[in-house]
């Protein structure tokens, strides 16, 4: 059965036939190891009931493994050559499941809707340079996505899964926590890619949660988060002065929210940020 998956030789052959030259700008590092894609699909806990969105299918390594297991896969690819080639790869390798596959040739950050059934899961080896914005965009756009399993740079995986107070806790951690419970789900070495990247990768598992109960909108909450971390070393009193209008107004908003104005953003949970957002002076 595993003959359907792409081997390292298959990837090389496909890339040569298509004249694909992987570029860094597009974060093109293709998985050449069938064990790794199997591991990702297992960790994602995908089944026949799932409608999976995959961002950046590339030559199709992960796509084929997903398609074997999921009810439906919609893949979004920005690259002209890769997007044009993928339907043929799917048709050749998994003809009996080709009708469960849809390809969207677009920049994932510009997607506003997708064809086919409503997505329930996000599984992707994300392009490194846009990994966080793409992840947040998909979670915001498709509330039906209940679970996610994404591969990102190891350092980004740490940041996404970091709890408040941790050294690497920052904007991606807080924003991801708005949508989901996030945890690291394993490490991936460089050798499973072609070309091999110069950083290690990590898996991140996401489980959708209810957003914090707040009268502030997501946009309002995220504005506080951005302001708090824009000057990481500053206390909230001064980091939020611009947002609130003055240091005194920032102090008042924090106090009203039950947060110390002398604290730094890195100590605050997403719930804390949501409460501060509610107390922005009119
Ligand atoms: N999924 C494949 C694999 O695991 O072998 C390829 C993963 S590679 C890390 C990232 C893929 O995302 C590439 O195919 C690249 O062309 C695509 N990509 C880059 N930026 C994108 C964007 N903004 N929207 C959609 N796809 C993008």
From TrEMBL:
Alphabetical list of InterPro entries matching this protein: KsgA/Erm, rRNA_Ade_diMease-like_C, rRNA_Ade_Mease_Trfase_CS, rRNA_Ade_methylase_Trfase_N, rRNA_adenine_dimethylase, SAM-dependent_MTases_sf
| Reaction equation(s) it catalyzes | adenosine(1518)/adenosine(1519) in 16S rRNA + 4 S-adenosyl-L-methionine = N(6)-dimethyladenosine(1518)/N(6)-dimethyladenosine(1519) in 16S rRNA + 4 S-adenosyl-L-homocysteine + 4 H(+)
Extract one GO molecular function annotation from the record. Answer: 16S rRNA (adenine(1518)-N(6)/adenine(1519)-N(6))-dimethyltransferase activity
Q: Where does S-adenosyl-L-methionine bind?
A: 29, 31, 56, 77, 107, 125
Q: Give the EC class as a word.
A: transferase
Q: Which domain of life is it from?
A: Bacteria
Keywords of the record, alphabetical order, are: Cytoplasm, Methyltransferase, RNA-binding, rRNA processing, S-adenosyl-L-methionine, Transferase
Which Pfam families does this chain map to? RrnaAD
Gene3D superfamilies with a match to the protein in the record = Ribosomal RNA adenine dimethylase-like, domain 2 (1.10.8.100), Vaccinia Virus protein VP39 (3.40.50.150)
What main location does UniProt list?
Answer: cytoplasm
- Subcellular localization: Cytoplasm
| Enzyme Commission number | 2.1.1.182
Q: Its biological function?
A: Specifically dimethylates two adjacent adenosines (A1518 and A1519) in the loop of a conserved hairpin near the 3'-end of 16S rRNA in the 30S particle. May play a critical role in biogenesis of 30S subunits.
Q: Which family is it part of?
A: Belongs to the class I-like SAM-binding methyltransferase superfamily. rRNA adenine N(6)-methyltransferase family. RsmA subfamily.
User: What is the protein's given name?
Assistant: Ribosomal RNA small subunit methyltransferase A
Organism the protein comes from: Streptomyces carpaticus
